[in-house]
Design goal:
two-stranded antiparallel sheet, about 30% helix, single chain, two-stranded antiparallel ribbon, alpha+beta
Length: about 130
């Protein structure tokens, strides 16, 4: 069942599948932590910003192997839809992949990406990790 909902953050109206999370657009978002259930469903924009902020905080505090293990659960497939604020941000019209996106991919591409977690985690770039790669 689809219902019209109003985002408690920005007051925009959007569709929510309250009866079945498996049918709702929000099922594709990482679930690293529980959102405030008392506030109601967030719209796609507010939810992506909230989840993106929580992922960023998690990656600042996580050990490299922990971050990779959790991100790999959401591993990229060629047909996966990328979510703004979670997988990428837009700066001056350019798409910039986040550390989360790179961790989901599972290896360093060797292109010197600004948010490369393999550099931040002091691992060798240009080499596929033991756990992943395409």
């Amino acid at each position: 069942m689809t219902k019209n909902a109003t985002c408690p953050n920005c007051s925009i109206s959007f569709s929510c599948h309250v009866e079945s999370i498996k049918e709702c657009w929000c099922k594709d978002y990482p679930t690293l932590s529980t959102l405030d259930s008392d506030g109601g469903c967030l719209c796609p924009e507010c939810l992506s910003r909230s989840v993106g902020t929580k992922i960023h905080q998690f990656l600042l505090e996580a050990r490299p192997e922990q971050a990779f293990e959790i991100a790999s659960r959401y591993g990229n497939t060629r047909n996966a839809q990328l979510i703004e604020h979670i997988d990428y941000i837009v700066e001056n019209g350019n798409y910039v992949f986040t550390r989360w996106y790179h961790l989901k991919r599972g290896y360093c591409c060797g292109n010197g990406c600004r948010n490369c977690p393999w550099v931040a985690f002091n691992t060798d770039c240009n080499e596929e990790t033991e756990k992943g790669g395409e």
